[in-house]
Amino acid sequence: KDDPTVSKTDAKAEKEADYMQILLQLFLTFVFIGILNFGGGYAMIAFIQNQVVDVHGWLTLQEYTDMLAISQSTPGPVAVNTATYTGFKIGGLPGALLATFGLVVPAYFIILGLMYILRHNPDNPLLRQIISGVRPMVVALTAGSAILLAFENIGSFYELVLFLLAFLLLRFFKLNPIILVSVFGIWGIAYANIFV
Q1: CA 127 to CA 43: how far, in whole Å?
Q2: Cβ–Cβ contacts within 10 Å for residue 163, how many?
């Protein structure tokens, strides 16, 4: 007859090994994103979406979009907030710390290296050519991610009106995004409680 304590111990050890594997995968994924990203936080959104939604399936596109809304409305860079939230959802506090660390550390060393090169050779034509080639790609990544998120989240005339209003307020009236997020969040609560 099998000893039940042995099978419980084996199951616990297997669960811990699976958890450690997920943490390692989470960390390496965000290191990969941190190394390959160019263009800052908003360009990184497309990389993160590809990895956490498409490649690993850790989040659905709707969960990712909700997470972006939360990341936008909390203090700090959007990419770091996104990494922290994803890590927490997948691996709890250790996952949040590892994802954030994995994202930030490679970028830190890349920036140090680039600053060293620029400081010692500010007119480096090769570096300027690389930047001029990468810049349009960053715009394409950001726009592609924005279009995909728009198609996923604008499903009604009401949402289209809110989108257009937010776009106009940001683009033409230069309204502070923090104020805009706050006002639209309050509007969402009011709309849901009064009209729905």
Answers
A1: 20
A2: 13
pTM for the model stands at 0.67
**pLDDT one-digit tens code per residue, 88-107:** 999 999 999 999 999 999 88
User: Tokens for 5?
Assistant: 């304590």
- Residues in the chain with pLDDT < 70? 1-6, 38-41
CA-based nearest residue to 30, from 71, 90, 114: 90
Burial 68-83 (b: 16+ CB within 10 A, else e): bbebeeeeeebbbbbb
Structure tokens given for 108 = 């830190």
For 160-189, the three-class secondary structure string (H helix, E strand, C coil) is: HHHHHHHHHHHHCCCCCHHHHHHHHHHHHH
Crossing angle for the helix pair 4-36 and 41-49, nearest 10 degrees?
Answer: 140
Residue 126 contacts residue 118 (beta carbons within 8 Å): no
